[in-house]
Design a protein that fits this description.
446 residues, 18 helices, 12% strand, globular
Length: 446
Amino acid sequence: MGNFYKLIIVIVLIIITTALYLHKDTLNQDPGLYVGSEKCKDCHQTQHSAWHDSLHPKMFKPVENPEEILGDFDSNNPLVTFRKEDIDFVIGSKWEQVYAHMIDGEYYPFTAKWLVLTQQWVPYKVNNWKETPLSVKCNGCHTTGFNPQTYEFSEFGIGCEACHGPANLHVQNQTIETAAQCIICHADDNRHADNEAKKDIIVSYKSAVCGQCHSRGSQSVDNEHMTIKFNFPLEYIPGNEINTAFKPLTQSQDKKGQFWWGNGISKNRHQEYADFARSKHAKSLKNLKEKRREDCGDPGTNCLQCHSTDYRMADKDNKPTLDEAKEGITCIACHEPHSIDKKYLRDSVGAHKCKECHANSLSRSTIESGKPHTPCPTGQVQCADCHMPRIVSTGGTFSLRSHAFKIIPPEATEKYQMPNSCQNGNCHKDKDLQWAKDAYRDYYLQ
């Protein structure tokens, strides 16, 4: 009898040990715990692969390969007072690169940065690099899961959870639903319905998800008898609006004209959300419900395809009604958030995106004016060239497109010394400003 009880005890211990082993990754039910983008790869391979090759994970990363450092260290430039071997971290990869190292547990930039587009070194924080700790100035947007109390973060670069929120509970629930060793015991749990009700991961169409980083401003926190000012929104939760404690930089504060042109349109990077939030795209659903053109008739569900992103993104059998729709045209109506279009379709925001909603208005304006919408050859110019001109500066030149969705006439160049729609990018560079002013007036204003 004694041996029988011993056998029972051994079997119970084996069962407990096995259960503990199988649940080793599902013991922590903290929904606010970040797990890292690699945990997403098993179930979301296409999205993860496209994201991995995009710019987001390269926004701040440790140096793993010297080839990631794009700056020219063979030219003996006097601005470069550090060696390539001294660089621990790189920030950016397409327009410019800032280099950083760690001093006493804090990240600090080196005093020269490399402009990738123009292939040149320029000074960077030469006299105030000590007042530029990246934890306060940059890391809230260049890392994922940044904690303003400890300055720690879960992941270098912009990972999945920056837009979807902490994924700990989601990963655990998905593991229980799909792993063979879990299904044995949990087959009848009906967890899928519970998870849908609990929303263990965030999927939001709000532009604020992008705006948390594509904004310029500050948020101050009182900490141990001192006030710390962070240059980014703190503890943003995807699906919400940006915390009102974050104070966006305004044009009235821009005394040196570094961030806005004289007509109130952004001239510097990290300000896309400011321009977009004031645009008609952002107000498209509100305008549909409140402001109607007489020739459009009463608003209906059919209008939502061009006025509501949550309608556009919803399954065909689960479309919101006019009263249920919540979002107007938001960032992801044009930008595939994982960069799948760029990796697999070699596509970016082209004319076809605009024509999905603006084809009728283009036809109407052509009929009313009796001439083509633009005098430029349609195969050589796209909608964005005129309506989203490259008037935003980064990498030493005006290389980023405006998100105000406004044509900048040549007269604005004369008045505000800013690029205009007719001569932005490589358009009409061989012509002088007076030619552009005359051509614009003769075609559009006569």
